Amino acid sequence: MKTKKINIGILGCGVVGTGVAKLLMEKAELLESRIGVPVNLKYVADLDTTTDRGISFPEGVFISDAGTVINDPDINIIVELIGGTKVAKDFTLKALENGKHVVTANKALIASFGNIIVQTAREKELDFAFEASVGGCMPVIKSIRESLVANRIDSMTGILNGTCNYILTKITSEGCPFDEALKEAQEKGYAEADPFLDIEGHDSAHKLAILTSLAYGMEINLDDIYVEGISSITPMDIQNAREFGYSIKLLAISKNHSDSVEARVHPTMIPESHPLAHVNGSMNAVTIDGDATGRTMLYGAGAGMMPTASAVVSDIADIARNIMTGSKKRMPILGSPQKNIKKIPIMPFTETSTCYYIRLEASDHPGVLSKISGILGDQGISIKSVHQKGRRTNGTVPVVMITHKAMEKEIQKSLAEIASLDAIPEKPVVIRIEEE
């Protein structure tokens, strides 16, 4: 039987939900011309139906009961935009059980419960799509799953959180303290009232868990990703980085070692020559290194009503085309057939290797630097350069060291021993360096 129209039900009418509804209604003719049938917004469900969203819904479309949407036999695609995990998980699984395809932008949901949701969708021969969960309007999931299908992906490096990138850009350009930059980000709507997930790196980790699964054919694994945020970054560190030819960014880094995968999120110094060094403000970008393509880079708005809504609607269009042609399981949800999805371990963070920036306050006494150098040397860590930064204060001088490549566990052992010295009154600051 020929499909006459595709009915859509949206759960959640926050910023992104409102944007998706706007696109579906305002671009109805354009979408029909490109998909081949009308895409009809039948329901938008939200507990709050009184707040003005700046959009006028047809009568009967805007309702408060999500169950009505999930249980409607005429709904083809459910768009989950509630956020969080518990209710979103329950509604997503219920929608799949009821035979509905599901689209979401919820990276926390996928990173935490993606494996069970994907399994359910496969069993029901339904689509579960989540392009908007990583990188906003950047088609990074589509690129990995489709455009780069002939590549062995060797590594990915991304700026995946606009809040952190805005804050670091602000500190870099104006030298303002972290708290001041965060406050401005909140005032401009780039940061939530509770910014914990953003500034402590967890939002980026959710996204990295999704990308590593797609890129390397592995189950989604959030728990083993190392996560460190940007709240301890100071204008001094950013100034020092600039003098050494680096920029500081919160990076999500993944490297393919065949039998294991690196996956880590932390503040990172990268050379000014690196393309990500010039991604500023609230923008996102990701570089992907494939064996056939070399390096490719995607850049765009990583959040915001309409950029994210655009990515959601792209998933709706893909699923609508599958419905039109009667295609089932055409595109593996995680990029590979289930039989080829492996439990590839994430390498312990202590086993990873990189170069390091170390800043410490040291008592201005003879022999202190040689003692510090000796501790590093005992762990096989070679120092590339040492700089005394600024003048003595309170009997101490700021010292900055750049190391050659070393293993994380060796650095941590050294820093613990250095921090225990009487000549070091404050905990050393360490920032990892990723060279080209």
Automatic annotation (TrEMBL):
Q: Which GO terms describe its molecular function?
A: homoserine dehydrogenase activity; NADP binding
A Pfam family found in this protein is: Homoserine_dh
Instruction: Tell me which CDD domains the record gives.
Output: ACT_HSDH-Hom
Positions the record marks as coiled coil are: none
The residues that the entry says bind L-homoserine are: E192
Which UniProt keywords are listed?
Amino-acid biosynthesis, Methionine biosynthesis, NADP, Oxidoreductase, Threonine biosynthesis
- Main enzyme class: oxidoreductase
What residues make up the catalytic site? K207
In terms of Gene3D superfamilies, this protein maps to: 3.30.70.260, Dihydrodipicolinate Reductase, domain 2, NAD(P)-binding Rossmann-like Domain
Annotated EC: 1.1.1.3
Report residues binding NADP(+): L11, G12, C13, G14, V15, V16, G17, T18
Does NADP show up as a keyword for this record? yes
Positions of the ACT domain: 357-434
Instruction: Classify the source by domain of life.
Output: Bacteria
List residues binding NADPH.
K107
Q: Which family does it belong to?
A: Belongs to the homoserine dehydrogenase family.
Instruction: List the NCBIfam families.
Output: PRK06349.1 (NF004976)
UniProt name for this protein: Homoserine dehydrogenase
Q: Which organism is it from?
A: Desulfamplus magnetovallimortis
Q: Which gene encodes it?
A: hom
